[in-house]
Amino acid sequence: MNKPPRKRNKATSGASTDSTSAASSANEDISQQEDPGSATITVTAVEIPELTEQEQSDRLHLERKVERAIFEAGKALMELRDRRLYRSTHKTFEEYCRDRFGHNRRQSYLLMDAAVIFDNLEQKCDRSDHILPTNEWQVRPLTKLDPDIQPEAWEQAVESANGKVPSHRIVKDVVQRIMERTKVPNTYHLGEVCQILVKDNPELRGKAGCWGIVSAVNEFSCTVRMWDGEYTIGLQHLKSYNYLPSECEQMQVICDRINRVYSSGLEESVQKFLESLGKLNRAYLTALEEKLLKVLESEFRD
Length: 302
Description:
The protein is α+β, with helices and mostly antiparallel strands. The protein has 10 helices and 5 strands, in the order αααααααβββββααα. It has helices spanning about 15-30, 55-80, 95-100, 105-125, 135-140, 150-160, 170-180, 245-260, 270-275, 285-300, and strands at about 195, 210-215, 220-225, 230-235, 240. Strand 3 (about 220-225) and strand 4 (about 230-235) form a beta hairpin. The model is unreliable at about 10-15 and about 20-30 (pLDDT under 50).
């Protein structure tokens, strides 16, 4: 009778034995190690060299170029306007800026106003920390203040920003607090004829000595209608002519007539004549002025 075949033992490879031994050895090593969370990591420190005097000078010079970039544009626009360097191709400065730079009238004048404010801050602010504006939006709220107060407001804004360049919102908040602190009672009334006092305010450039008629009375300012439109002007920049009610009514009629012709887009020489009427310091037109204005009105109607 045949015997059943004998079961053969499974062979164990040397590799398996070595692997098991290695795992056991690793486990023993891990069990003997300390908690990994308490392991010490060695980091090699890299020394950063201090700036040399020349490098510090170069940095300051380049920072100044960044700060002045946008304001140099405003100064260039002022020179183009004041010297009328656009006259060979365009009738007006506004048309030139629109065609050449893609600026509307407001953009161009905001840049020019910002350049004036920047120069004022550069001259009068404490330069020890070298903090100056870097764009037009930051200084726009300062146009509401007299030039002699602008440096004070800017330094307060820098302090509120912890020594950094302040944002538009911070500057605006500082300006509002200063305006509330220096609030002057508004005694003007609708229809009153006032003279514009520029007092180095860049926002009123070109309006020195002009007259306007109060069309709205605000808390800190008046809206004044002039020969080329309406402007909101601070009380410190207005002076009443103290005209009689009948004289105020007469000036209202003259203002309406000038404004209609001025807005019709006539040539620049004609606009200059109308602007001169906008600076009258009397409540009437002479016979010649009346005659010339009637001629322009008839031209406008045609």
